[in-house]
Every structure is written in C-alpha cells, then in structure tokens.
Amino acid sequence: MAEVDQVTQSYEGSTDESEDEESEEEPKLKYERLANGVTDILQKDAASCMTVHDKFLALGTHHGKVYLLDVQGNMTQRFDISSVKVNQVSLDESGEHIGICSEDGKVQVVGLYTREGFHENFDCPIKIVALHPQFGRSSSKQFITGANKLLLYERNWLNRWKTTILHEGEGTISNIKWRGNLVAWSNSVGVKIYDASSKQRITNISRDNTNFRPDMYLCSLCWKDNITLIIGWATSVKVCVVKERDPTDLRDLPTRYVEIVSAFESEFHISGLAPLGERLVLLMYVNETLEQTDKEHCARPRLDIIHHLPDSYEEISSDALSVRGFQENECRDYSLEHSDGESLFYIISPRDIVVAKERDQDDHIEWLLGKKKYEEAMMAAEISQKNIKRHNILDIGRAYVNYLVDKGDYHGAARKCQKILGKNMDLWENEVYRFKKIGQLKAISQYLPRGDLRLRPAIYEMILYEFLESDYEGFASLIREWPGDIYNNMTVVRSVLDHLDRAPSNRTLLTTLAELYTYDQRYDKALEIYLKLRHKDVFQLIHKHNLFSSIKDKIVLLMEFDKEQAVNMLLDNEDKISIDKVVEELKDQLELQHVYLHNLFKRDHHKGQKFHERQISLYAEYDRPNLLPFLRDSTHCPLEKALEICQQRNFVEETVFLLSRMGNSRRALQMITEELQDVDKAIEFAKEQDDAELWEDLISHSIDKPPFITGLLNNIGTHVDPILLIYRIKEGMEIPNLRDSLVKILQDYNLQILLREGCKKIIVSDCLTLLKKMHKTQLRGVCVDEENICESCHSLILPTDIAKPFSVVVFHCRHMFHKDCLPTPGMFCNICSAKRRRPAGGLGEA
C-alpha cells in the first residue's frame, strides 16, 4: 500500500509524517490538495458536499454557503443559501442550472445565469436533490428531492410545478443518482431504480449489512454508464446492469430488469466509489485498533483501485490519504466525486479536498527517476516523447550520465553519452571537460563522435596527450581507430618525437609515428620506420601509395625482411623497378640475388637470359637441387661454362646431363657406371639415348659386375636381346637373384609373344574387314556419260559417233582416259601416280 506523502509533494501542512520506507510498486494515481480559494474557505467553514462539472466545481458547506470554483480551486461565485448545513448540490449536464437543498428544508433550483427557478421551504430537512441531466433543455424542468418521501417536480403546460410521489414509507432518502431515463435512490431498506420513460420502478435491491446504521454508513451510488449502476454500502459492493426484458415475458412486469453481475465484500467501509475504465475506484473509511489500549481510532482513509469479479475482486493499487483532520472524521464525512470528462477523482472531507488523477507518462518517468531507474525512464521517454511535457530525453539522459559518474561507472556513463548527447557538440565538449576534471578521459575516448559531426581538434588532441603520457598501447589504438583529419597531425607528431627522444627503441611509438606520417602523406618517412621495424604493413604501404621509386635503394632491406613478398612485389612491378636494377642492388647479397633470379626464371625462362650464366654459379652455391632442372629448362645457358663448374664441384648428375646434351653419351655413361655405380640410372640413361653402341658399352662394362648383370637382366629385355648378355656371362660367375631374373626374362618374352599374337589377330581382323570393304567398293559400277571428259586430252570421253569403235580406261579413283591418251599401255592413273607415287589398278576398258 503506497503512502500518498511519498508519491506527491502537494500535501503541504500534512499533520502526518511520511513513512521512511518507500514502496517499490509504482502508484496508479497522483494526488494534490485542492488549494487557492478552497484553503481559505475550509479554514473558516467545513465542506459538506460537492458536485463536479467538467468546467467548474460546486462546493456546499456546513454554514449554508455554496461556492462555485474553477478546477484549480479559485472561487468564482458564492451563494448564501442558509445558516445551516447544505446537504446536496446538483448540476445538470450543461452546467447552467443548479439544485441546492439544506438541513433547514430549503430547496432551490435556479439558473446560474437567469436566476429564475424553483424556491421552496419544507418543514423537514431535505437530504438530497437531483436535477434531470437535460434540465436546461427540457420543457418540463424535472428534478427530484428526497427526505421522508421521494418527490418528482416538473412544470406543466400552465408553467406551474407539479409534484409526484415516487416513493415513501421506507425511511429517509439518503442518495439519488439520475442518468438518462434511469433514477436510482437509496433509503434505509435498500436501493430502487425508476424508469422515467415508462414511469415504472424496475427493481429493489435490499441492503445486505443491516448491522450498520444507514445514517452513519451512507449508501454510495454511481452510474458507470447509462445502464450500469455501482452500489457501495458499508462493506458491500454491487455492480448492477439494467437490461431489456424479452417481450414474450412481459405480462405485467416492467420492460426492464436489473442483473447483479458482481457482488463482494470490501475490507473496510465504503465512503464513495467511481468507475475508472473497466476498474473501480473505492474510497474507504478505515478503523484501526491500537495494540496498547485495544481501542479503535480513525486511520487515514484509503483510495483503492480494484478489478471486480463476479463474487470477489483483485486489488490493483491502494493508497492511504493524509487528509486534514482524518482523526476526527466518520465514514459519512467522506465522499468521492469524479469528472466524466477526464479521470479526476475528488476526495471530499470536512477540512480538506484532495484531487486524484491518473498518472500520465510524465508521472511514470518521474517515479522511475526517483527510483534511479534511468534506463527504463529513457525507454519510456523515447516511446512517448510526443506526449510528455515535463520531461525530455536529453535531460533524463544527462541525469543518467550524472548518476553513473557519481556511482563510479565511468565507462558506462561514457557509453551512454553516445546515445544521449547525439549531435549536440557543445554538450559533448562539456562532458569531455568534465571527464578530464575527474581524470577519466580514457573512459570517454572510444565513444567520441568521429563521423560527419566532429568536435574541435583540440578536444581529440587533449585525449591523445592523456594517453601518450600514460598508455602507449592505448595511444596507438586511438591513432588506428580515429580518422587522421580530426586532429592536428603535426602537433601530435611533435609530441611523439619528444617521447621517442626518451624511448628511441619503443616499437609501439615508432609504429604509431609511421601511421601518423602515412596520414600526413609523408610516405618516405613512414617507409623508413616500417623497414626499420620490419613491419608487416610495409608492402601494403608500398603498393597502396606507389612508393616504388622510394624503395630502389632499399631492395636489400625488403628482401631481408620477407623474401617471398619482396620478390613477388618486384616481379609484379618490373615496369617500375627493372630486373637489371634489382640484380645490381643485390650484387653484394648473392643468396638474395639467387632467390630473385630463381623466381624470375620460374615465371619466364627467357626474361633473365643474360643472367643465366651467372645463375649457374648461384645455383651451384646456394641451391643445387634446382641446378639440374635449371640446366634442363634453360636454352641460354653456356654448356661449356656449366660443365666446367659442375666438374669443379664434382656434380656427377649435372655433369652426366651436360655431357649427354653435348653429345658425349659414352663418357656420360662411363661416369654413371664408374662414379655413381648406379645400374638403374645407367639403364635409364641408355634407354633415353636409344643407341645400340651405348647398350654394348653398358654390357661390356657390366659383364664383370654381378649386381650390374642382375640389373641388366631385369630391365633390358625390351630393348636388347637378353641372349647377347647371357652368352657373355662367364661360366661359374655367381649372380645374385639369377633365377628370378631368368624367370622375369621368360615372363617378359611370353608377354611379348602374347602381345604379338594379339596384335596379329587384331591386324588380320582389320585387314579382312578393309579387304571386304575394298572388294565391295570395287564391285560398284562407274557411270560414264556425255559429260565426262578425258583427264589427259580434256575432250569428251565418249565419241559423238557411237557406231565407231573406241576404248576408254576407267580407274578406281574415278579418273577416265582415252586408251590412246595414256602415255604407256600400263594400267596406272597418271594423276594419282603423280600424287601418291604408287600404282592404282584400273577398273577396266570400255
């Protein structure tokens, strides 16, 4: 249960002290005391009743006065009605007519602007008066008064007042509420509802709590809408709905009936009630028992918001109200009035009037701020920024930042600045200076704006100097992250150089200085530092800014740093740094020169041809495994020079290759057999050369070496007749694996026989097929007609006179000749013989 004093500060002069412990649940309503003219009135008088209109308030007092007030409590009019208590004030919907009744029996119904109306004095106290909602527009000018009888007053056609008794005989009428055509009233027995349109009483709802005096615990009535009536009496609450009766069930019954949709008991006594959307607002009178004396005393009244169920309710919120003089008040001293136009609730007591209203988004944000829930407050402000009036996102955000700073969460505060300060550069600079003052510039550095909107360069430089003095790594990170144009580059460079004077070998400072030089487009200086540090970004820097003219004298440094990247870069940019220039720069670094020329040769065998002679020595010295492939692939290498170098270094394999290439195969074979003593390599060499004399030399050299004989027996079967070798083996010589070698020879021989037979079968089959095809072709006739000509004399092949004898020779190639035109009587086609140089058989004569 929330305490009103902890929710609002509007209760000046409250006699109760607030409890120290605050509620964690946000209140649903906010409260303020109706002040101004009301304060003066209630200091001299006591409130007895009040009626609320959308435009103004009408307050009745115990001294017989009626005051018209604006919604702020300022008095606009005053009526001296009586010298005793005003029991009720009633207004019509237009707010132009007022009905007043008092304890001395006076009833007045007048126009606020016309002063014409009804004035009557009765001989008994009139407890209640109610004007027809449309009193000003209606010609009958109906209103109702309640005392011992319920009387309906209306004007007839003669402009006289007609009185009708609606009810009597059940005690004093204590309350009347008129809505549309329905009038609800309460007396000592219960609540009745009267339908003015049908002039019928449609229900009677009995009072439940008969133990409570009806004059001490008055019945509270309130129309939620045109058909829903809410009744509160003592501790009982009922919600009733007026419904239309089925026409078939009418008989002698009223056309309407009432259904009680909810009925429950409250914890305390009801002093007033009102609707709040689908919920109810209950004003309750509270009695508490003191533990020390076991005596009851009046506690502060409660205003609860509930959700009603068919036979119970759920409490939404509950507030204890510190109204003036609550210790002396009784249940009947309180009342609750509400405004239909907006959710305003007036709690009326003799010495105080408190206004409760639904909390808006501003109130919600204010409560969140009071609870230090800044994140939620910002979210609420962002969602409802068009509706809030007292708060704005910036102020909330800055309060949040201040809170985080006070709590010591500097990084959190700096992070929030990014969202809160946005594009307001002045506020950004103020925050930066505040962070500097508390020694937390590092915390805000990573969140500073550095896009299209930027602070003054001095702000960024101030932060850079802070890092430079205490954190080289952090300084380097900022230089990498921040654009180079948001601060004065030269000023920062000078500061870095000053620090390098004290720590000349600090890699972090040197790397950062190189980056600063790069931002300032002084690439030569940046390149020198990168090379000195052997930094991985040196090649990227060269490519990105086309610094090839600056590295012509730094090729050795680049090669020493990263051979692979340096060589690839140099070879990719031959148009900018020539091959001759690179070789010249590497003349004193022969191994690096070899790496460069080797990669050049791999890319193109001809580009560096003038350096091939030099490369022989370089390969021999630094990369022998690639010497032989180089000698094989190079067509510009001087063989004599290469042979001399290989013989000097006793490179047998390379020497063998060179001798073979120079035509000295027998000497090459001799080196293989004598120096390498590798029969397999010797056999492979002989196979490559495919020279019978070379095979003979190999056999002669191997005949006294059993391992060589074994190798020959295993491999020469397909090149040399093995019998030649076998006949020359000395009798009694022990040859390793001779049996296996002979078996292999026989297997190879059998395999050759099988292959030959298979090939023979295939050839025979193909020959037969082709022969059949040729025979079939030769059997075909050849058409000879008047259009054909002799291929020799080029005249028509057939004579014009068919009767004369003639001879024609037609060959299979389709060439035709007069027999006499052939140079020799042989059967050969002159044309095809000249082309193929082989005979072509004739088809025949005609």
From TrEMBL:
Stretches with biased composition (Acidic residues): 14-25
Stated role: Plays a role in vesicle-mediated protein trafficking to lysosomal compartments including the endocytic membrane transport pathways.
Membrane association type: Peripheral membrane protein
Keywords of the record: Cytoplasmic vesicle, Endosome, Golgi apparatus, Lysosome, Metal-binding, Protein transport, Transport, Zinc, Zinc-finger
CHCR repeat coordinates: 567-711
Organism: Chiloscyllium punctatum
Lineage: Eukaryota, Metazoa, Chordata, Craniata, Vertebrata
Location(s), subcellular: Endosome membrane; Late endosome membrane; Early endosome membrane; Lysosome membrane
Protein name, entry field: Vacuolar protein sorting-associated protein 41 homolog
